[in-house]
Amino acid sequence: MQHHWSVLCQSSVIDIDSKLLSLYDCLEKINVNTPLKPGMPINLPISFEVVSFLSDTQAKGKRKLELKAELLDPKGQKINQFGGELFFKDGSRRLRSRLKIQGLTLNDPGLYWLRLHFQGRDGLDFVADCDLPLEVNISYKIL
Fold first, then answer.
1. pLDDT tens-digit profile of 56-88?
2. β-pairing, 110-120 with 127-140?
3. Fold for domain 2-140?
4. How far is CA 45 from the centre of its chain?
């Protein structure tokens, strides 16, 4: 089993007929204007997705993975944690997963990291880690 890629985006669509995946508004950087004082947490009411692609040379049986995602601030502190279970269907060699996340909490400007950890379950020996960067610029404005 192998983790090939993961992308942070605002939305994705899988075409029902062709099964093609489209990624929209990939996130690498966020600019925020706020009237709050520096150091105060900023809660952004946005939704975004982590889309990942994995493959397995063995297409026998249903295989289960656990996905854990942690959002780390520029100081390396964990701000939030997300997760879910992923399943390879019997006979399938490829898996595309979409983890939908609501809301984003920011502490300071800088480089944030979304750390992904894939872990095999039910006797499946597989572990993969991936870090996705997200640059955050914050402008403090007095209204």
1. 887 777 888 889 999 999 999 999 999 988 888
2. antiparallel
3. Immunoglobulin-like (2.60.40)
4. 16
| Farthest CA pair distance, the chain | 60
* pTM for the structure as a whole: 0.86
CA distance 92 to 60: 8
Residues of the chain with pLDDT under 70: 123, 143
Q: What are the tokens at 61?
A: 């049986």
Q: How many helices (H) and strands (E) does the chain have?
A: 0, 9
What is the 8-class DSSP label of residue 16?
T
Q: What ranges do the domains of the chain cover?
A: 2-140
CA proximity to 49, closest of 64, 75, 67: 67
